[in-house]
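Please annotate this fold before class:
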Amino acid sequence: MLGEDAEIPRWIKIENIEKPQETLSWESDLDAGEIEAIQLAQAKKADLLLTDDQKARDVAANLGLKVKGSIGVLMTAKEQKIIAEVKMYLDKMISQAGFWVSPNLYDSVLKGLNEL
C-alpha cells in the first residue's frame, strides 16, 4: 500500500466504479475494495484482474474473469524473460514491502522454477 506521501506513478490510472452493485457483498466474504476491483474489471471487460486475496481470486474466476496474483506476475515475467529470476523480487517483496507468503508456497514456487 502506498503511504500518504507516496507519489502515484503516471502509468497508474485511478478509476471508480460508477454504480457499485450489492450482489457480491453477500455472495462472498470480500471487503469493499476487493468487490469494487472485481466489479470494475467486469465493467471494463479487463483482460486480467490482479489481486493477492485468494477469496477474491476465486470469486472473480467464478465470474469468468482471468485472475493473477503478484507471484503469478513474477512467474510470467520470468517465463517471458523479462526478469532472470523470481527469488530476488519475491524476497524484496517480503522483506521491504511486508508481502506475506506461506513457507510452503515460497518453497513450491521457487522449486518449480529451479531457483531453490
Summary: The chain has two domains: 1-68, 70-112.
